[in-house]
């Protein structure tokens, strides 16, 4: 398909230039097997925000599409949340050919345990087994063994025990854990395992190139939980959205290189892909767009258990404010009620100039500082030491396409396609007349790419 681009454009930038002399770029997930692609499509449809009735309907449709039971589809979603793309690959069961407990028995075991532990009632695994045995005698069939009953109940019991623990475990000696809204504990053991992301309104008034006061910009940061390194940023006037998050992710994922005007004596150095993406519950982080990005790049999106669990990603904002922003002309102060009157008079920095100072501070100072919990390692040093393999290096072009939003349109006869009150035509599109296709687009430019 020929690329089509409207005249609508706007400037967005994130300082991640092409980096030379690096190994050949990896290709973003695009050549999975037909079965894996079908699973990915099912996962994306189920991750979309839906009410309970709609979700149940989608679950039944997904089960029919995959030729699996509803329980198997639920298990696929659970595996995806834990393993990412690995869950899309069919693996051989170690117990293939051996006897497994019937699904009806599994449902009966779980239901009996849940009903027996409602409110103040308590029921042990042994008592559940006795109920199972009685039920089997009633039906005149062979009952599952007590070990089988215990095995079926074990995941549920472990989940309940975790729910009883403190809501956000945090540091346990030298180990760090963060808790998700759905009750999972993510044990932080290495770099690029769990990235966190958040936004703040910078307390500095900026001007345009002619000195006219504009407003305060938004800063989005991506932080590696293990090392506390700032992996990437996005600075601009656009309010938080999934597109802003995508720009910050792009900057964090790609290697970064800067010109001499930034005054850097060392490189930013961090790049790669996370395994988990941990955020608050803002609508930009709950969006279908971000879920789509996660599916294709192979990371799982998690929401924080509660607002106070975001200390790791929010702490850098305070440090940046006290050690950098407060030293700049145009600083408004963090208290709106006590805002300095001279902020507007002194404001003189442009967005570009603020970005230069911010990058300089992060690279030369913040990432090179020793975090209080890191012992004698700098944040950047801990990031490098915490890698278990060289970070994935992605194709910049493929990454840009992956980060685009997507929608679905039908191609009209003659190769016409309508999008955002614009009509696109291509001879190559004519062969797809009548087909419904997925369009990927950058909302800032409406640059389109087709995927079937």
Describe the structure.
By secondary structure, this protein is of the alpha+beta class. It has 2 domains: 34-164, no CATH class; 175-385, 2-Layer Sandwich (Nucleotidyltransferase, domain 5). 36% of the residues lie in helices and 15% in strands. The protein has helices at residues 34-47, 52-66, 70-83, 103-116, 125-139, 146-164, 242-253, 288-297, 311-323, 342-346, 351-366, 379-385, 396-403, and strands at residues 170-172, 175-179, 185-188, 194-201, 218-224, 230-236, 276-279, 300-303, 405-410, 416-419, 422-425, 436-441, 448-451. The protein has a 5-stranded mixed beta sheet with strand order 6-5-4-7-8, sandwiched between helices. Strands 1-2-3 form a 3-stranded antiparallel beta sheet, with no helix packed on it. A hairpin with a 5-residue loop joins strand 5 and strand 6 (230-236). The longest helix has 19 residues, at 146-164. The protein starts with 33 loop residues before the first helix and ends with a strand.
Strand order of the largest sheet: 6-5-4-7-8
Order of secondary-structure elements: HHHHHHEEEEEEHEHEHHHHHEEEEE
Radius of gyration: 26 Å
Please count the beta strands (DSSP E, at least 2 residues each).
13
First CA to last CA: what distance?
11 Å
| Count of helical stretches | 13
Query: Mean pLDDT, nearest integer?
Result: 80
| Shape designation | globular
Low confidence ranges: 1-27, 446-452
Q: Given the helix and strand composition, which structural class is it?
A: alpha+beta
**What's the CATH topology label of the largest domain?**
Nucleotidyltransferase, domain 5
> How does the major sheet shape up?
5 strands, mixed
């Amino acid at each position: 398909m020929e690329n089509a681009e409207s005249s609508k454009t706007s400037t967005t930038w994130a300082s991640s230039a092409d980096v030379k002399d690096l190994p050949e770029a990896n290709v973003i997930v695009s050549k999975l097997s037909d079965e894996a692609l079908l699973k990915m499509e099912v996962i994306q449809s189920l991750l979309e925000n839906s009410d309970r009735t709609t979700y149940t309907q989608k679950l039944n449709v997904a089960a029919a599409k995959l030729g699996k039971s509803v329980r198997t589809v639920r298990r696929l979603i659970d595996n995806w949340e834990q393993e990412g793309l690995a869950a899309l690959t069919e693996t051989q069961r170690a117990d293939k050919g051996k006897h497994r407990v019937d699904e009806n028995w599994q449902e009966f075991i779980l239901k009996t345990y849940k009903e027996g532990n409602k409110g103040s009632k308590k029921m042990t695994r042994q008592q559940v087994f006795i109920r199972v045995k009685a039920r089997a005698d009633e039906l005149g069939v062979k009952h599952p063994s007590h070990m089988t009953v215990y095995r079926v109940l074990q995941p549920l019991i472990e989940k309940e025990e975790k729910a009883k623990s403190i809501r956000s475990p945090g540091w346990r000696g030298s180990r760090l854990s963060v808790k998700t809204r759905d009750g999972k504990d993510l044990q932080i053991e290495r770099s690029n395992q769990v990235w966190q992301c958040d936004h703040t309104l910078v307390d500095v008034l900026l001007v345009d190139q002619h000195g006219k006061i504009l407003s305060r910009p938004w800063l989005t940061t991506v932080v590696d939980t293990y090392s506390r390194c700032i992996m990437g940023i996005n600075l601009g006037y656009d309010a938080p959205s999934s597109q802003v998050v995508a720009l910050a992710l792009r900057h964090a994922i790609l290697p970064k290189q800067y010109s001499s005007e930034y005054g850097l004596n060392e490189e930013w150095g961090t790049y790669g892909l996370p395994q988990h993406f941990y955020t608050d519950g803002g609508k930009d982080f709950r969006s279908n767009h971000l879920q789509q990005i996660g599916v294709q790049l192979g990371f799982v999106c998690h929401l924080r258990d509660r607002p106070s669990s975001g200390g790791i990603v929010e702490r850098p904002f305070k440090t940046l404010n006290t050690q950098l922003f407060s030293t700049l002309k145009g600083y408004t102060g963090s208290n709106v009620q006590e805002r300095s009157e001279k902020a507007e008079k002194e404001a003189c920095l442009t967005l570009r100039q603020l970005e230069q100072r911010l990058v300089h501070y992060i690279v030369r100072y913040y990432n090179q500082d020793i975090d209080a919990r890191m012992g004698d390692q700098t944040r950047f040093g801990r990031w490098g030491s915490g890698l278990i393999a060289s970070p994935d290096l992605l194709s910049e072009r493929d990454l840009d396409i992956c980060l685009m939003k997507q929608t679905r349109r039908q191609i009209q006869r003659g190769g016409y396609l309508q999008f955002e009150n614009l009509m696109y035509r291509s001879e190559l599109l004519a062969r797809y007349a009548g087909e419904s296709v997925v369009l990927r687009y950058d909302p800032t430019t409406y640059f389109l790419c087709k995927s079937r």
